[in-house]
Amino acid sequence: MALIETQNLRYIYGKGTPFEKVALHGADISINEGEFIGVIGHTGSGKSTLVQLLNGLLKPESGKILLNGVDIWAKPKEIRKVRFAVGLVFQYPEYQLFEETVYKDIAFGPTNKGIHNKDELDAVVRRAAEFAGLKESLLEKSPFDLSGGEKRRAAIAGVIAMEPKVLILDEPTAGLDPKGRDRILNQIKKYREQTGSTVLLVSHSMEDIARVADRVLVMNHGNVEMFDTTENVFKQGEHLAEIGLKVPQVTQVFLELKKLGADVDTGVYTMEQAKAAALAYLRGAGTEGGNA
Question: Which of 2, 13, 16, 99 has its CA 20 to 30 A from that of 268?
Answer without folding.
Answer: 2
